[in-house]
Model the fold of this input.
Amino acid sequence: MSAIHFISPTGETTTLQAKDGDSAMATAMAAGLNGIVAECGGSAMCATCHVYVDEAWADKLPAPLANELEMLECTASERRATSRLSCQIKIDAALDGIVLSLPETQQ
Ligand code: FES
Done:
């Protein structure tokens, strides 16, 4: 298990424990976390699982694939340099403690 710290737009932190191999999105959905919608269920087809990865963690993630980059053009909230789709962030021990901020809106 690895910890994910989700920061809401108002600054509240929710820490969830993720099973290694699960996505950050799936972990958030299983816990009923507000702020992740995940309309497409994790297929990188909706951009409603958008998160801002804390800068200290951004380089620890594999680079986004073409389909993720394409969907990041469609986020409801502004896209930033560390924007990612949380369904494409697979958690493992190296990401234990990752900090993900939620955007103002997903739709
Ligand atoms: S859940 Fe749809 S793009 Fe991530």
Q: What stands out?
A: The two ends are 30 Å apart (CA to CA). Residues 25, 38-40, 42, 44-49, 71, 85, 87 surround FE2/S2 (inorganic) cluster (CB under 6 Å).
